[in-house]
Specification:
It comes from Rugosimonospora africana. The chain is an alpha/beta fold and 683 residues long. It folds into 4 domains: 189 residues, no CATH class; 235 residues, P-loop containing nucleotide triphosphate hydrolases (Rossmann fold, 3-Layer(aba) Sandwich); 78 residues, no CATH class; 151 residues, 3-Layer(aba) Sandwich (Rossmann fold). Helix content is 44%, strand content 16%. A hairpin with a 5-residue loop joins β3 and β4. About 1% of the residues have low confidence. The structure holds adenosine-5'-triphosphate (ATP).
């Protein structure tokens, strides 16, 4: 670098340090101000409840600001030119960060990464400058205290553009992983940004290979939507659904780090709100219960509760006897069925129609019934009795108990939908004494939700982000469709990573079950996690997975792969972990359930402290976890033990192995005592 340039860079850096001091000062002012408001909050608010809420809000705001110095205050700067594309930003310069920071006059020093103009930071290129003259990315130390280390410029107006060659991007994706997942606001890529900023009303599906940033995109979209539609979405507006608690724990810090604490993050079981399952289905029973045809079976069983009226409804009122004839009642039942409302709404409608008929009769006698009279009539014993016969109240658990324990009822509901073998597979061998003592399996809980949803629609979220969506069954999709009937979806997944017995092989089908049949399927194909050498190894499995998914291109040229034949797996694992501990970052030992206890015992005997799947104690860098829980997680160093076991442990074992091998951020060790699965060995 020539001296004059060096001088200029030094000057620039000095200017940046000066600006940083200004921002720090502004932040300190904001913090002090917020704390003052906390102190006075009690007095200014009207009642105690409001005061408490306000106090809590201000405290968390103050706390957020106080924690701010631990993370970089901004990550980039945009300098606009004076061309027409700059619009109202002509000759302006903006710093971009996780939060907006203002000075004591309210002038923004740092703007939010979600503000409209920030999208130009992520998307502007030398070919499509969008008015941007130069983009600057800042580098910061990774550890506390956070210090500015430098910056990287792209003068788009001079045709300069780094794209994925940016050293700061490379440093970020090659950074050793410790603790939970982090946000990616500093390095969101143009195609990711388009997905993040998609309109609230747009449902979309993202198909992306391992480590292409699907989870990151989904979480950042949630944060973006909350920023743009704050008022609409604050209370129960946004839900994130993940495959298991270990995964949710891993991603749990991302949204709070972006200042968003109002997003619910749940597993599907938690969405259904059920207690843990108390029964286990056979594979065949589970397959049938999760099939889309079951929705039709349940609907038929539900509506089979409605019976043809055989008696008129007679209500004595004073000297009159008001009456709904059998024919009139039957006609209303048929009409309401055609109106296709939820079962529970139908029952109430039938009650209202009976009341309306009584009202007309009373009016014919020259009387005007009051509102109260109408309410009383609606609850009169003959009306309720007629309603209970014609359109009875249904409890989902009672209906399902009857269906699964009565072969004839099941045969009637499943006629033409399920084969005799399929009916047999889901029938209970032992009939419970009552629905109260029935033991429900995980699949039964989805069926109960289906029935409950047909009786009454559940409350709808405005937006749901569904991660690992390829693994959902038709009925699980329907459960989420019901909860987003008035909202939109971000559906994330990878067909190649489908491991459930009902995993999707086609996104359009899955989207139809999710109630968003016409949503576009977008692809992410650049891998930010798995190094090229590891990805090439894992991709050997693709021909055996029988899915049409675009291949992933890794951005990472570093990384290491070691495949070793090891007759004594526990001691080979101990040795591999010992070597891995020489490097920085997290270590994941992944094997089948059957092997785990032996491996953990061997590690502990060697004096190595290990975390189990959902733990991440900072003083234990090694996690031992079953292959079944590896989905969505990542570790710097993965030690995959006995791939052949992983493949044989379940019907979609090859897909499971693909998931396991693609958890590695830097290094993958494969230890095997038996031959490797043919596709891996042949590559
Ligand atoms: N634009 C980006 N800049 C920096 N890091 C990124 C970017 N996009 C993704 N990453 C990182 O890549 C890793 C993988 O991302 P993520 O877990 O979202 O991928 P995924 O597609 O959900 O993977 P999988 O399907 O294998 O679970 C994460 O550590 C994430 O932070």
């Amino acid at each position: 670098m020539r001296a004059p340039q060096r001088d200029r860079l030094d000057r620039d850096f000095a200017d940046e340090l000066e600006f940083l001091t200004r921002v720090r000062r502004a932040l300190a002012w904001m913090l002090e101000h917020a704390q003052m408001r906390v102190a006075t909050g009690d007095q200014v608010a009207g009642d105690r409840y409001t005061a408490e809420r306000l106090g809590r809000m201000l405290k968390s705001y103050a706390k957020e600001l106080a924690e701010e110095p631990d993370s970089p205050l901004y990550f980039g700067r945009l300098r606009f030119g004076d061309g027409p594309d700059a619009d109202e930003h002509r000759n302006q310069s903006y710093y971009l960060g996780r939060r907006r920071i203002t000075d004591d006059t309210g002038q923004p020093l740092v703007i939010d990464w979600r503000a409209p103009v920030s999208s130009r930071f992520y998307r502007a290129s030398a070919r499509d400058r969008q008015g941007v003259a130069a983009r600057r990315r800042f580098g910061w130390t990774a550890h506390h205290p956070v210090r500015l280390t430098g910056f990287e410029d792209e003068h788009l107006d001079r045709g300069e553009e780094l794209g994925t060659a940016s050293q700061l991007l490379t440093a970020e994706i090659e950074r050793p992983r410790v603790g939970p997942m982090r946000d990616i606001v500093a390095t969101i890529q143009p195609d990711q940004d388009e997905l993040v900023r998609a309109d609230l009303d747009r449902s979309l599906c993202v198909q992306g290979g391992p480590g292409t940033g699907k989870t990151a995109v989904g979480l950042h979209r949630a944060a973006y939507l909350l920023y743009v539609h704050r008022r609409q979405l604050t209370h129960n507006g946004v839900l994130v659904v993940g495959p298991n608690p270990a995964f949710l724990h891993y991603i749990s810090a991302v949204l709070p780090a972006l200042g968003e604490v109002d997003v619910r993050q749940l597993t599907l079981d938690e969405v259904l709100g059920e207690t843990p399952p108390r029964a286990v289905d056979t594979d065949e029973a589970a397959r049938v219960k999760h099939d889309a045809r079951m929705a039709a079976v349940l609907r038929r069983a539900l509506y089979a509760q409605i019976t043809e009226p055989v008696e008129p409804v007679v209500v004595p009122v004073g000297s009159y006897r008001l009456r709904v004839t059998v024919t009139a009642l039957a006609r209303q039942v048929v009409r309401i069925r055609v109106e296709d409302v939820p079962y529970g709404v139908g029952r109430e409608r039938l009650r209202a129609r009976m009341v309306a008929m009584f009202q007309r009769q009373l009016e014919a006698h020259g009387e005007t019934p009051t509102r109260r009279w109408l309410d009383t009539i609606g609850r009169a014993r003959p009306v309720v009795a007629a309603l209970d016969r014609a359109w009875p109240k249904v409890r989902p658990d009672e209906l399902l108990t009857a269906l699964l324990s009565d072969p004839d009822a099941l045969a009637r509901a499943a006629d033409g939908l399920l084969t005799a073998e399929e009916q047999k597979a889901i029938r209970w061998q032992h009939k419970p004494r009552s629905y109260k003592s029935a033991k429900w399996s995980a699949a039964d809980q989805v069926l109960l939700d289906e029935i409950a949803g047909a009786i009454e629609h559940p409350a709808s979220y405005r937006h749901i982000v569904i991660d690992e969506a390829q693994d959902l069954s038709a009925l699980q999709c329907r459960a989420l469709a019901r909860r987003s009937a008035h909202g939109s979806l971000t559906v994330l997944g990878d067909l190649a990573q489908g491991t459930s017995p009902w995993a999707a092989s086609d996104w359009h089908e899955q989207l139809a079950h999710l109630g968003k049949a016409d949503s576009p399927v977008e692809a992410l194909t650049v891998g930010f996690r798995v190094p090229a050498v590891v990805l090439a190894f894992a991709n050997r499995l693709l021909p055996g997975l029988h899915v049409a998914a675009p291949p992933t291109r890794s951005l990472r040229t570093d990384g290491a792969l070691r495949v070793r034949h090891a007759p004594d797996l526990p001691s080979a694992t101990v040795a591999a972990v010992g070597a891995a501990l020489e490097h920085e970052g997290s270590i994941g030992v992944i094997a089948t359930d059957a092997l785990l206890a032996t491996l953990s015992a061997a590690l502990r005997a060697a004096g190595i402290a290990v975390n189990a799947a959902e733990e991440d104690s900072p003083d234990r860098r090694v996690t031992v976890l079953p292959a079944a829980l590896a989905k969505g997680l990542e570790f710097d160093h993965v030690i995959a033990v006995e791939p052949d076991d992983i493949v044989r442990a379940e019907p979609r074992g090859l897909n499971r192995l693909y998931v396991v091998l693609t958890r590695a951020v830097s290094r993958l060790d494969v230890l095997h005592s038996r031959p490797l699965p043919a596709l891996l060995a042949d590559g």
